[in-house]
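Example 3.
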Amino acid sequence: MKIGILGYGNLGRGVECAVKQNDDVELAAVFTRREPSSVKILTEGVPVYNVSEMEAHADEIDVLIICGGSATDLPKQTPEAAKLFNVIDSFDTHANIPAHFAAVDAAAKENGHIALISAGWDPGMFSLNRLYANCILPEGQDYTFWGKGVSQGHSDAIRRIEGVKNAKQYTIPVESALEAVRSGENPELSTRDKHLRECFVVAEEGADLAKIEHEIVTMPNYFADYDTTVHFISEEEFVANHSGIAHGGFVFRTGTTGWNKENKHVVEYSLKLDSNPEFTASVIVAYARAINRLHQEGATGCRTVFDIAPAYLSPLSGEELRAHLL
Amino acid sequence: MKIGILGYGNLGRGVECAVKQNDDVELAAVFTRREPSSVKILTEGVPVYNVSEMEAHADEIDVLIICGGSATDLPKQTPEAAKLFNVIDSFDTHANIPAHFAAVDAAAKENGHIALISAGWDPGMFSLNRLYANCILPEGQDYTFWGKGVSQGHSDAIRRIEGVKNAKQYTIPVESALEAVRSGENPELSTRDKHLRECFVVAEEGADLAKIEHEIVTMPNYFADYDTTVHFISEEEFVANHSGIAHGGFVFRTGTTGWNKENKHVVEYSLKLDSNPEFTASVIVAYARAINRLHQEGATGCRTVFDIAPAYLSPLSGEELRAHLL
């Protein structure tokens, strides 16, 4: 299977690494909005083209993986690219998934291509676990916790405050809330009960630290509803200890069965990821294999992880899967 | 969707309870090898028939759920019943899955029916989690832990010892092994490292307790490779404290990504189940919905959980799933 990458940032590099780990997958080309000669990729012998050259290389690629951002890139890029390629993205603005799905579905169907949107871990593996557990335990309650990991949006919000040079915000699940859910207590949890927010801030010289801290912890929507801790640190410490891209989280469903709902069950799925973009990329590459196969069977139009039978993700045959993994 | 149950033991009763929790599913009939009038079911107004009457009621049932044992019942019952019905079972003898699949597939195809074998949690949800995580992290290691829960086979083995009146054996995952896996250490774990075995035994009056204990802890295959604890208790205590059917377990995959495999990831799925048969039954009913739909689309032959797109398990539409669960 020949893969193309559109957009060579953290996610694009993650896809490149995932391709290396899958023997049946090959990187055919990288497309960038930058001047191609300025983009150095890791894989030897693979060409880098400008996005304007995509159409000329459409025949060389089985699935194009679109590695843009959900806010402005993907709503435009994925339907456009679906005219030329089978495509897959990691669109993660939950509220806009129906509209994005409709746009990509129309473009893909019209041009005889297949597409899959919102691959990754949330949306993606977390969504799958919510779906499976909801189908098994129709009477129950869902809980999703994120972290410990970096929230890009919250880090950006801090950086916009006057006197802030750099900032990183960690979302941290509250341990006692996790334990209460895990025990099957079905707790009612407020926003504040579920997550803590911890901020590491590099201030400009002479900035008013008390004022910055106050602006952070009282910021509506972002921090006011949470218990927030602010640490002021040096530029050196920031670079040394807060450059990571780790993330993760927990999905629970607790439910009851029995004639009188007398039995409790707890289903828990969790991820601890050293690299958020590399894990997301690894999910995407597995789903690229799946849609490539479905396309070979004649399928067109848009899909999500909900629509893909798990066996399609694996390079192994049905016989091998039944013998070794079932 | 109209469901039939073949075999009314713990699992059959679990299916009956699960049907009650799913508005789109209805119980149409229970088939038993016993005298039908001797079988009292929970649902009012639903007929109980002898297995000899199955053929006469084939048209009244969309999916027959076969609730027999894997050792001798299912290898015979499932292919036989697949001639008359769409069928689903929870066949759990891992080593014999390929042969069982082949027999059921042939019978179902020949008669225009669909079948699904090995639904439940292991095989079943645990298998799915192994498959997904293996596809995402091709370079990594799998760990499965069972318990805390009752092992029927090990309890039976103890009961066969001279002087034993009753016995229950709990399989317990070793907490330090779980923690080592969870931390991403990729430990090499022996059989003894992973699980403890705890036995509660009611002895015949005057039996040689030391001899019984010795026979248990040295029993090859069953106990010799484990750290095993034996407690002798009274009949009353046995009935009061050891009649439960709780179970559960953990599936991990730990793997690496990155150009030089520099990033570690831990995927963990766990179940804590008050009732093993009721949870298994709940999984089966969700998959019964899926194969009924696939049959309406014209599909025939045998499937496993690997072959079913998750959306088929849900009573919700694709639009609803994308809007609310993705």
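Chain A touches chain B through 70 residues (CB under 8 Å). The mean pLDDT of chain A is 96.
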